[in-house]
Amino acid sequence: MTPANNKSAKKVPVLEAFIKAKCPRCRRGDIYSTPTYGFSAQRMHERCSHCNLHYEREPGYWYVAMFVSYTFNVAEMVTFAVGTHILTGSNSPWLYVGVLMAVVFLLSPFNYRYSRVALLYWLTPGLNYEPWRAEDKAPLPGDGKAGEKPD
């Protein structure tokens, strides 16, 4: 069965797969092996456990995630600074410094994780969702085996 005529694959919603940090190609395998918040460092799988996608597309690929994380930080800081001003009306710079440092500290694990997931989902050319790969025994074109062909 080829990907073009396979209509039985269940399409996983992109937002649900993004939030759960699933593989962007099959949306079944986990990207991370650890939870977002915990006492251990966050660890990524090297490959998708379902479709065998290699997550690090090229050497230095994750450096771009720093720019995505920076964008997340700026958006969060502006949001919380405006929210603090609306709620308190204070002009004290120490209040804003305290609130924003707490926000940066508390959201850094979230930013680390989702900057990489966003990079994989929306900022990597040529990496698209392929619903037929989400099946349990999806054949790879020209391979004849389920999920063993490395990218």
Task: Describe this structure as you would to a colleague.
The protein has 151 residues and is mainly alpha-helical. The chain has two domains: 12-57 and 126-151, no CATH class; 61-123, no CATH class. The protein is 41% helix and 0% strand. The radius of gyration is 19 Å and the shape is elongated. Residues 142-151 have low confidence and may be disordered. The chain crosses the membrane at residues 61-82, 94-112. Keywords: Membrane, Transmembrane, Transmembrane helix. InterPro entries: DUF983. Pfam families: DUF983 (PF06170). This is DUF983 domain-containing protein.
Short description:
It is built from 3 helices and no strands. The protein is an all-alpha fold and 151 residues long. It has 2 domains: 72 residues, no CATH class; 63 residues, no CATH class.
Quick tags:
DUF983 domain-containing protein, 2 domains, 0% strand, membrane, transmembrane helix, mainly alpha, DUF983, 151 residues, single chain
The biggest sheet, with number of strands, parallel, antiparallel or mixed sense and barrel status, is: none
DSSP strand tally:
0
Report the end-to-end length measured between terminal Cα atoms: 20 Å
Shape: elongated
Q: What would you call the structural class? A: mainly alpha
Number of helices: 3
Work out the helicity level: 40-55%
Radius of gyration: 19 Å
Beta-strand content bin = under 5%
Low-confidence segments: 142-151
- So what's the oligomer here? single chain
Mean pLDDT: 86
How many domains, in number, for the residues? Answer: 2
Taken in chain order, the helices and strands follow as HHH
